[in-house]
Amino acid sequence: MLAPMWAGAERVGFAGLCALALTMATTPVVRRAALRWGWIAKPVQDRWGRRVIARLGGVSIFAGVTLSALVWIPPHSQILSLLLGIVLVFALGLADDMRRMPPYTKLVGQLLIGCLVVLSGIRIDLISSPWLAVPLSVLWFVLVMNAFNLLDNMDGLAAGIGAIGSGFCAVHAVLAGNWSVATAAAILAGSCLGFLRYNFPPAKIFMGDSGSHLLGLVLAALALMGSWRHSTQLLSVLLVPALVLAVPIFDTCFVTIQRLAHGQHPFVGGTDHVSHRLAILGLSTRQTVLVLYSVSTALGLLSLASVDVKPLSALALWLSTLTGLVLCGGYLAKVSVYRLERPGADTAPSETGAAPSTFIDTMLMHKRRLAEVLVDFCLISSVYVFAHLLRFEALTQDLHQQIVRTLPILLVIKLTCFGICGLYRGVWRYLGLADIVTVFKSVTLGSICSLLALVYLWRFEGYSRSVLIIDWMLTFLAVGGSRVAERLLDEWIKGASQQAVPIVIIGAGDTGARVLRLLKEQGQIGRRVIGFLDDDLRKHGTRIQGARVVGGRSRLPDIIREARVQEVLIAMTDPPGELLQYIQRCCAPSGVKWKVVTAGIRDAV
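User: That's the sequence. What structure does it adopt?
Assistant: Structure tokens below.
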């Protein structure tokens, strides 16, 4: 048994290395030809890049994938049909690269190619509803192709996400014993990594539509061929593929909703993608793509953990993952990208008046409370299922019936208690201790009322007390965590941002703490606190709201030089004159600004 497994693993490894070598060898050739013949991408208003870069890198990806597949994969009907689809989708993308095609013409081509692949047998297999499998499969192929086309908006992003997604498809295929699919996934991963050698920021070549369409089609097919199990439930069938490809799918859905909400055309280029918003918030191009690589890897690992889950567990996993993505989307939606003409342009609102709002804008952007209720609805539902899983490890048929019978009642009771306790009156961005107390009271009251309802309706017969305790703890963590997430994202991005102005605060007392809190609330100012300086030795090494007290005033010259501090804030009541003179002497040679912040803190900072 080990010999066939070793032979299969050996074939998978060599196929991936072959594709890697072929793509790395052909990409420089394609790049030189593109530069010579003028096949280049020039800076335009609706694109992020500001450099002239060779394009048509999809040619090298196509060569690496097809040549390696012909050598390493035994031919059979599905593989041959997929190869034909690859040729057609590559030709479609290449035609779009050479001469821009209307979006609807390209969509028709994608639908026809999707139908061809589905006819070969690569499709979602719904035993109970076979008629539904065909249109869903075609839409799946079109969605993923367009998702990767839209994702190819920043150096190294589509190639890196493609390598990660195909890597997880290979792992799923190996676990299923499908060595042909594992080999195909390894070939695609190798081609993506070979191209990424020249596409990682700063990129020397772009893949273009020919490459992004190819990635989308092959990954959509591999996700269905190697990672699903026969099931009568649509959620169970699509759970693993959707997690593997969650980043490009989320980006596509997010951009489409945002464009419709702001009256923009959903099928044109723009600088409003998830990656662009992270870059506008202050992350560098490399930081942005690495963050999205990490998210894609985390969701891929989650897909491995969710293999063969039951329908109810799949629904809970869907809801919790979707809730996390919605929270991230709500945070990124606040970036005013539709007022930007180019990266770094002024983001101030127009003085001529607000843009006219659309119906979708009103429903989605100005109904924050409704969104908060829906987030809590998903959290309560998924947490209740996870509480049973933690207590019993597996859900029997009786537990399934018990959850289905009681969950609607718990949802009504808990959401009502949340509203009564004032949980939906706060602003998440300015979350404080009082808001955490409100969350605790709301969750506790909801759990107590739920317990009383179960006792009244069913005398608590057949129910587990430990499940309710676990449910209370998980609900508090989930609801509280959803409120804290926005503050955590704010602080993490400001800490990682290369555009934020580094500052240091003199005085680690009450005034210094208030100044730091206000700076965190006014995150749009773009300041990053390096730390505090205070002559009180007892405070050295301690932290105030996450900022460390790095030493006394004598360390100021070193901090200015090492951290490239651009501003010093003196957070002290009536600071002595000799201290002000010392700070002035330290700041003057480097041109560092300094000022005293005492009364009127909000205006001063």
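The CA atoms of residues 95 and 101 lie 8 Å apart.
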